[in-house]
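Thread: sanity check for a docking pose with magnesium ion

Original post by kr_44:
Hi all, I'm comparing my docking run against an independent structure prediction. Below are the sequence and the ligand SMILES. Could someone generate the full complex and paste the structure tokens? I mainly care about where the ligand ends up relative to the chain.
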Amino acid sequence: MQIIIATKNMGKVREFEAMTESQKAPLPIQWLSLRDFPEIGEIEETGSTFRENALLKAQTVANITGLAALSDDSGLQVDALGGAPGIYSARYAGEPKDDERNNAKLLQELQGLPFEQRTARFICVLALALPDGQKFFAEGACHGFIAKEKAGDGGFGYDPLFYLPFYHKTMAQLSSTVKNSISHRASAMEKMFFLLRALLFPEPEPMRKPNF
Ligand SMILES: O=c1[nH]c(=O)c2ncn([C@@H]3O[C@H](COP(=O)(O)OP(=O)(O)OP(=O)(O)O)[C@@H](O)[C@H]3O)c2[nH]1
Ligand SMILES: [Mg+2]
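Reply from moderator J.T.:
Ran it for you. Here is the predicted complex with magnesium ion included:
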């Protein structure tokens, strides 16, 4: 089976590739990415939820290529901002999307807010679109706080501001191995691996119907 990782974000691609490579029992899947399909441009995200946008991206790529496509729509929800930037995380500070400006805007919006009130979470919704029209979803979340200043240079996006009290570190200070075990993307992907395993190796039919 071939699956295209349907994202233009190289930070996400790196994480997906690390997660598929570190699987204990790798599935018989050849993973491709949009680097293999340079003719596919940016897909407009017109949905109003992570799920709608994820489906839009996966179905567009599956329709164009005739192959299975796995997309990721993700973002940061900050409680003190009523859940913003949410689905608008990539372009929080406007076009063109820019992590530096997004982080600066976030710090500005939360200026003066005490640490305990800076609760936030990353959300990731994965959509798998098959060429025959079937679709599957998996979701993950990761809870933390928005730090008062940036720290670390790993990951991407808001990682230098996303503080995990359990580790006393920002997401950008964690090794990629740890980020790829505990992140919103890791937890969604873990569920997606179960779905993929069920798709590739369906359970045999039971010999007889259960008695209820
Ligand atoms: O610090 C971060 N660590 C993460 O692990 C993470 N995951 C998502 N995000 C933020 O949310 C936007 C997604 O927006 P998004 O799902 O539309 O993706 P994107 O536009 O970057 O690429 P594509 O997949 O749409 O092609 C990203 O740009 C980031 O700002 C993250 N920030
Ligand atoms: Mg996007």
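The longest helix spans residues 184-200. Hope that helps with the comparison, let us know if your pose agrees.
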